[in-house]
Design brief:
alpha/beta, six-stranded mixed β-sheet, three-stranded mixed β-sheet, 1 helix, about 35% helix, rod-shaped
């Protein structure tokens, strides 16, 4: 129900005065008495209208309160969404930075959007011309060994991998897998590894800790 303008209440007729003559006094008195009932009705109508207006105002106040609560909830939801988006953007940025740092290192130990990424190893070729050059993590080398040479494993971090395959055609006892530091280990031994067999076709070097590598055949 919309707001209504209360019905105006008419003024009482003039009251009789002690100075009036008898006729004027009686005329005013009768007129005043006759106005009481219409005035009572007018008062009741105005009161009903004022009451209706107060109920309308109360309902609008409740609607305003409900709207304010809904707006507050929407603001809270929007803030939570913004925080989630900021975290997702930050995760993506960290993932991109990590991927730039190294294909495998960017996945291992990561959280959020990075978990579950399957990163392809970078395909490379290794020949005697690369003698003495350290191997790069996140790479798969087609290892060619036409003449004797060696390459070393880097320090690495846990989760790093380097793969050596025989598609480049290696020969027995011509390739030596070295270490970046004499204290580093391969399969728990602080020594280099001479590839003295050409029967293995794919060897995976996995870093378990800085300077610690484990070889496996796949």
């Amino acid at each position: 129900m919309p707001l209504v303008v209360p019905t105006p209440i008419p003024a009482y007729p003039p009251a009789p005065q002690p100075t009036d003559d008898r006729v004027s006094f009686s005329t005013k008195a009768f007129a005043l008495a006759a106005s009481y009932e219409p005035q009572r009705v007018a008062f009741n109508i105005a009161l009903d209208q004022v009451h209706a207006n107060s109920q309308w105002a109360q309902s609008k106040a409740q609607e305003a309160q409900d709207s304010a609560m809904a707006a507050s909830q929407s603001a809270s939801n929007a803030h939570a969404s913004r925080v989630a988006v900021d975290e997702a953007v930050n995760d993506v940025r960290e993932a991109l930075d990590a991927i730039k740092a190294g294909p495998v290192a960017s996945v291992n130990g990561r959280n959020g959007v990075v978990v579950g990424l399957q990163e392809a190893l970078i395909q490379r070729v290794s020949t005697a011309a690369d003698n003495g050059q350290p191997l790069l993590v996140g790479s798969e080398y087609a290892l060619s060994a036409g003449s004797a040479y060696s390459r070393s494993l880097p320090v690495g971090v846990a989760g790093n991998q380097i793969v050596l395959n025989s598609t480049g055609g290696w020969a027995a006892s011509l390739f030596t897998l070295g270490r970046a530091n004499a204290a580093h280990t391969i399969n728990g031994v602080a020594d280099n590894v001479l590839f003295d067999s050409d029967s293995a076709h794919r060897i995976i070097a996995s870093c378990t800790a800085p300077g610690a590598w484990v070889l496996s055949i796949s």
